[in-house]
Write a structure and sequence with these properties.
Layout lengths: L4 H22 L5 H7 L17 E4 L3 E5 H11 L11 E4 L10 H11 L1 H13 L3 E3 L6 H8 L6 E4 L13 E4 L2 H8 L4 E4 L2 E8 L8 H12 L7 E6 L1 H4 L3 H9 L8 E4 L3 H9 L3 H9 L8 H5 L7 E6 L6 E3 L7 E3 L3 H8 L5 E6 L7 H16 L7 E4 L4 H9 L2 H7 L3 E2 L22 E5 L15 E5 L2 H10 L11 E2 L5 E2 L21 E2 L36 E6 L6 H4 L12 H4 L18 E2 L6 E2 L1 H10 L4 E5 L11 H9 L1 E6 L4 H9 L3 E5 L13 E4 L11 E6 L5 E7 L4 H9 L2 H10 L1
Parallel strand pairs: 2-3, 2-5, 3-4, 5-6, 8-9, 8-11, 9-10, 14-15, 14-17, 15-16, 17-18, 22-25, 25-26, 26-27
Antiparallel strand pairs: 1-7, 4-21, 12-13, 19-20, 22-28, 23-24, 27-30, 28-29, 29-30
Helix pairs in contact: 1-12, 3-5, 3-7, 8-10, 11-12, 15-17, 15-18, 24-25
């Protein structure tokens, strides 16, 4: 039986009435995305239609999922909210704090020892507030959610940007910051700007070396890293129905890399098969009773241009296998063109590592397709030229794959089987062949490949592909290897051509596991004691941020003008910094250390207007804070791209930054800034970015009249005595302005609960 089956049945009992009402008030057929959105309104039955990309709407999500790195801050905030129990089903998954080094049998015990304080905190706080807890080694959050909690037609939020993976089972699942999760855990509505809709029509059928991963690699090349911002991507067509549920999950997962709010597919037979295979026949039966409400209306898919804001069509029969990268997930290259492109760009041809796993590609089907390539190498006496690392998606996947002999195939190629955890994908990788700053190439089946992401080396060129393509390239040891045409030389000196990969959608003998790693919370957690040592370096109870004084902000200094791509990895790095995710002051020592200073093109080296000297960004900002001087961060396009980590908003807030002024924001980061009481604004004229100079002072001359849809006026004073007056836009509505006034959304929640 499924977890929370009564909640799921309640959703299905309401969906027909709410969707029918939504059709009535909008006067048109509905996409799947709209059906889910309108059936999860906080106020119940729809009473009006909403304008996409404009109207802020309050929703009632069905559940919440948190991974250990972000759960710490989310739960530290929830502890301040004055509630006895989470208001909706919530789970915590320990997958980010496990470093990949020697293999699971060594790495997991090591992580339990080094992070025991954090794991104990998460287990105890989960037990206290009625939250399900998945132990270290249980698996990667999004694979575990797909196997246990995702259900067609549901709405979920999660404190990780790849929460969107659950779209593979027909959910609207959205990555958020911890403060958003706290709202819902506290029994309050969750606010989202009603998304625009991008339809992707898939025709034909995948075959040969082409995999579901290639669909999203192609889409990323079309949309770029910001082309999906503010939109839900909805896949449909015969090609969509021909793919497995986990293949759909892969596509949805990496939708985060184009900035999409989420991605989803309509309910079909592949989803039903997956639900039944994962012991959720009760969900499949319930879904079948309302299946017409769990996919888009026929009229929508017949004439998509009339109902979507943008339509993309991809013929899967003609789609070629791709590799994307390096340094950005939207640089899409068909594998047949990679050799020429790599040579032209001086990318290292030798491949040092092939890494298979992550929340994007760690299903049973993924492992079987990659294993089919690995087995050929073993059988045809081809020795792998690159190192291999494998991260199974969950203990269920690992146990089943070991039972069925899949892991042994990889081990026969001298692969290292890492823990069922994120590992190198999130920068938790103690790489055995450390390269220093040497240029080198790795290929992986992950979702992100930003500079320094996997191993901390800015010169590691990371390329993203399907598990089977990663396996083939790692075996060849060459980035320019095209397995569809190129041959390998085996140990006997013979030429060998790899056959096309084969795989199994689901294990023929079913999934099996001895201990999935789940701990249910106690029924009454009132007596559970959550301890946080005041001397801890890993955990720190939160102090409320100060409310706005209601006055214009004047005399603010420039902290940094960030040049080019500035992701959440640049603002708050992961890797070794993950250990401080529960201690705001300690982790703030990584604040903006990866951002490139536009005035000297260096990282973590900015000028202090107090001393005139250059120093690290956090050290410089701490001096501004000690002196009571407010500061401004200036950024480029799509600022805050990438992870949902709210630390990228909380750290500058904690250190005294007041304003983030950029050309444009990534959706989650903009919301996170608002939640933490920051002023997140954009240049009305993006060319005004060029006006900002290193020694500038900012006066916000009409902040006292801060109001929705009203631009702000900023006086920018330059060191030579000249000044420019610029306009800045914002997207704050009145409730969000109240967050700003109170100092944070959490402050407002506490105030309301105390009333």
């Amino acid at each position: 039986m499924a977890y929370d089956i009564d909640m799921i049945k309640k959703v299905y009992s309401q969906i027909s009435e709410r969707v029918d009402k939504a059709r009535e008030v909008t006067g048109k057929p509905l996409t799947l995305s709209e059906k889910i959105l309108y059936s999860h309104l906080w106020d119940g039955n729809p009473s009006q239609g909403f304008t996409r990309g404009k109207d802020y709407v309050e929703f009632s999500p069905d559940r919440i999922a948190c991974q250990d790195a972000t759960a710490q801050m989310a739960l530290l905030q929830f502890m301040q909210a004055g509630k006895k129990q989470a208001a909706v089903p919530t789970t915590v998954h320990c997958d980010h704090l496990i470093q990949a080094k020697l293999g699971a049998q060594f790495d997991l015990p090591s992580a339990k020892k080094s992070s025991d304080e954090v794991f104990d905190f998460l287990e105890s706080v989960s037990n206290k507030y009625g939250i399900g807890f998945w132990k270290p080694g249980a698996g990667i959050i999004h694979q575990v959610v797909l196997e246990n909690y995702a259900f067609p037609g549901g709405m979920m939020i999660g404190t990780d940007s790849h929460t969107v993976n659950a779209g593979g089972l027909g959910m609207v699942a959205i990555g958020v910051g911890g403060a958003d999760a706290v709202d819902v855990m506290a029994g309050m509505p969750w606010e989202l700007k009603f998304p625009k809709l991008i339809g992707v029509k898939l025709t034909g059928k995948l075959s040969g070396w082409t995999a579901p991963k290639d669909v999203i690699l192609k889409v990323a090349g079309i949309l770029t890293v910001k082309g999906g911002t503010g939109a839900i991507i909805e896949y449909f067509g015969e090609g969509a129905r021909s793919m497995s549920a986990t293949g759909k999950g892969t596509i949805c997962n990496m939708g985060a890399e184009v900035g999409a709010t989420t991605s989803t597919f309509g309910y079909d037979e592949s989803m039903e098969r997956y639900l039944r295979a994962t012991n959720r026949a009760d969900v499949a039966d319930a879904a079948n009773d309302v299946k017409d409400y769990l996919t888009g209306d026929d009229e929508v898919y017949a004439n998509p241009e009339q109902y979507f804001d943008e339509v993309i069509e991809i013929d899967l029969s003609e789609l070629k296998p791709h590799l994307n990268g390096p340094f950005t997930p939207d640089l899409a290259t068909p594998i047949s063109e990679m050799g020429e492109k790599a040579k032209a760009n001086d990318w290292p041809i030798k491949v040092d590592w092939g890494l298979i796993g992550s929340c994007t590609n760690s299903s049973y089907e993924d492992l079987t397709r990659a294993a089919s390539i690995a087995k050929q190498a073993v059988d045809k006496k081809v020795k792998a030229k690159s190192d291999f690392g494998i991260n199974p998606g969950s203990e269920t996947i690992r146990f089943t794959a070991e039972r069925d002999g899949l892991l042994q195939i990889f081990e026969d190629l001298d692969a290292t089987i890492f823990t069922n955890a994120c590992g190198p994908c999130i920068g938790q990788w103690d790489r055995s062949d450390r390269k220093g700053d040497e240029k080198n190439t790795i290929v992986h089946s992950f979702n992100r490949n930003f500079s320094k992401r996997a191993d901390g080396n800015p010169n590691t060129h990371a390329f993203v592909g399907s598990p089977e393509m990663v396996a083939a390239i790692a075996i060849s040891g060459r980035l320019d290897f095209d397995p569809t045409t190129d041959k390998l030389i085996n140990e006997d000196g013979e030429e060998v051509l790899l056959d096309e990969p084969t795989g199994l959608e689901l294990p023929p003998k079913g999934f099996d596991v001895e201990d999935p790693g789940y701990l249910a919370p106690t029924e009454d957690g009132s007596s559970v004691d959550v301890k946080v040592s005041p001397k801890s370096e890993r955990l720190q109870l939160l102090e409320p941020f100060a409310p706005w004084d209601g006055k214009n902000l004047t005399g603010a200094k420039l902290l940094i003008k960030a040049h080019g791509k500035c992701t959440t990895d640049h603002i708050s790095m992961a890797g070794p910094w993950l250990r401080f995710r529960g201690h705001l002051d300690n982790i703030s020592n990584n604040c903006l250390i990866g951002a490139v200073n536009a005035f000297n093109m260096k990282t973590n080296f900015v000028k202090s207007q107090i001393t005139g000297e250059y120093d690290a960004v956090p050290a410089t900002q701490r001096k501004y804070k000690a002196a009571g001087i407010p500061t401004v961060v200036v950024g480029d396009h799509n600022y805050g791209e990438g992870s949902s980590r709210e630390h990228a908003a909380m750290e500058p807030r904690h250190l005294g930054v007041k304003v983030v002024l950029v050309k444009s924001f990534a959706r989650i980061h903009e919301t996170n800034l608002k939640k933490q009481g920051m002023l997140g604004i954009t240049f009305e004229n993006e060319n005004d970015y060029e006006l900002i100079q290193e020694d500038d002072t900012f006066n916000f001359i009409d902040l006292e009249s801060f109001a929705p849809d009203k631009p702000l006026t900023i006086e920018v004073l330059h060191a030579d005595g000249s000044k420019d007056t610029i306009k800045a836009l914002h997207t704050y509505n009145q409730p969000q302005i109240e967050w700003f006034k109170e100092g944070s959304a959490l402050n407002l929640i506490k105030k309301q609960n105390a009333a």
